[in-house]
Amino acid sequence: KLAEVNKGNKGILRIVSVRSFGERHLAKAVAEFHKKNPEILVHLELAPGTKTPLQLHEKGFDLGVGIAPVTSPSAVVREVTRFDWVFCASRAYLKKNGPVSDLADLAAHPIIVNPRTFPNGICNLARAQKSYSVRLNVEISITNYWAIREVMLEGSGIALLPSFCVKDDIEGGDVVRILPA
To answer: What is the distance, to the nearest Å, from the Cα of residue 3 to the centroid of all Cα atoms in its chain?
Structure first.
């Protein structure tokens, strides 16, 4: 949650956030903050994930929320949450196209990714203290994680998504996490 500020403060709070996280988590936090601090105008900019640190630094935002490492030496970084990257598919897709039980099985399936996160279709993974570099069979690339989720739910392939985008779907049983280890 956004912290309350001292009563009587006025001004503008400028926040930039990676779009997928901001849509899901920050919009509600901004509403709660504004109810408690009505004298403060809140401007929330939802940006592509790769542009969030750049916009924070160059455009004078007060607060930035990103999902990638920050490289600016002037940034004061605080971790607010953790998430995993998840290979996942709709239960219907897997029923029609077969299970995925090994990294090698991914090559036989269309993969849906965000090209800003995986620009060359290569995903670096770690398992049992070993690192792997896997070239994905990217057939659909979309620059928004919620749109990737929708395409995956329609049965178009296996998606690589931040866990916060599919947590509820996995818990509900509509989506299966692929290669959870």
So the answer is: 23
- Per DSSP (E only), the strands in the chain are 11-18, 40-47, 63-65, 85-90, 111-113, 122-127, 130-135, 138-141, 158-162, 175-178
- The tens digit of pLDDT for each residue in 78-106 reads 777 778 889 999 999 999 999 898 888 88
DSSP state of 3: P
* Cβ atoms < 10 Å from Cβ of 47: 21
- 53 bridge partner residues: none
Per-residue pLDDT of 49-75, as tens digits, reads 655 555 566 677 888 887 666 666 667
Q: What share of the chain is helix, strand, coil (3-state, %, to 5)?
A: 30, 30, 40
Q: 155 with 148: CB under 8 angstroms?
A: no
* 58 Cβ contact partners less than 8 Å away, ≥ 6 residues apart: none
> How many helices (H) and strands (E) are present in the chain, helices listed first?
6, 10
Token digits of residue 130: 């070993």
Take residue 122 and report the two structure tokens written for it: 């290569």
